[in-house]
Amino acid sequence: MSKAFITGVSGQDGYYLSKYLLDKGYEIHGTVRRSSSINTSRIDSLISEFSETGKFNLYYSDLLDQSSLSNLINLIEPDEVYNLAAQSHVAVSFKNPSYTSQVSTLGPLALLEVIKNSKKKIKYYQASSSEMYGGKDDKLLDELSLFDPKSPYAAAKLFAHNLTKVYRDSYDMFAVNGILFNHESPLRGETFVTRKITRAVARISLGLQKKLTLGNLDACRDWGFAGDYVEAMWLMLQHDKPDDWVIATGESFSVKQFLNIAFEIVGLDYEEYVLTSDKYFRPNEVNFLKGDATKAKKELGWEPKTSFNDLVKMMVESDIELSKREKVLL
Ligand code: NAP
Ligand code: F7E
Question: Which of 52, 86, 156, 304 is the most exposed place for a label (fewest CB within 10 A)?
Fold first, then answer.
């Protein structure tokens, strides 16, 4: 039975990847951060279904605690390590640049070092990001496109991306970078724009909220479904040689287009409800992102399965169910 070690298992991708690997028969070992209130809501269903049989195991750790990471890897001796943990909010990275940078650089460094020194051949997946491109114009971006980070988040991700390549090339390690474009789901954090919108649409349609305040409505993103993207992470680690791959849908939509579709689902016109505020604009904006996943399609056999419209619908419908429960409690 294969063992996977997942940092950031309590996050959006942590849930979908764990579910995917559990279905394949993997044993999961994941790290969570100690917090003053419970932060495992996304993975509670996996805890209750799989923890008693030892198939889903959680450990307190933090990417800034190098000793805890190396102790865990040496104890568990996983076959695969997926480094998903990060302070993943781009706007927050401008407010907390030092913390964001340390987590996304020192964490991967500690993991790569312990894997390098391990007697076992452990495969490593690094969660790289389309934010590293900077997205100035409407070019299709692939593995050979230039990186031009626009935020502390993206600069730190680029460091980890390069470090992963350095360890791969210097020490013959199976270390890959998945350059994933935006991917969303009903489990997306509530402060990312897609979830902020679908949650507001649901609450407005049920009379629980009046307005929605956003920032730049003209920004365009290549939005896919997280459930499709975790399959690509696994496929990268099963490939015959380690490399870097772009994972994207090849389509880009603006925040306005997202708003339009989401509000239409509940029969409303977004222009009547949406306000903008400088508060949600960033010091430096990534205007346009669209990815070319041809290499992943050719070499990994990976393709996105969920359309943009279906993704928006899935998120709105899920948030309507959550908001109905909120309304009952009022
Ligand atoms: P997410 O929902 O924000 O999850 C991040 C996870 O990292 C959470 O489990 C979080 O724990 C954990 N974490 C944060 N700081 C940590 C620290 N100091 N030590 C240990 N764990 C820490 O992010 P996601 O959407 O699943 O994304 C997964 C990874 O892919 C991230 O590295 C992200 O930067 C990257 N990525 C995401 C996208 C996307 O569109 N989703 C695209 C490209 C790359 P808490 O729950 O306690 O906060
Ligand atoms: O912003 C604009 C905002 O915060 C998308 C992370 O997973 O994907 C994510 O980063 C766009 C930006 O995601 C609001 O200015 C407008 O142009 O949902 P987001 P992101 O910055 O693209 C990449 C690939 C990652 O790697 C990251 O970890 O929407 N926008 N108004 C807004 N964004 C937010 N959050 N809130 C607003 O009110």
Answer: 52
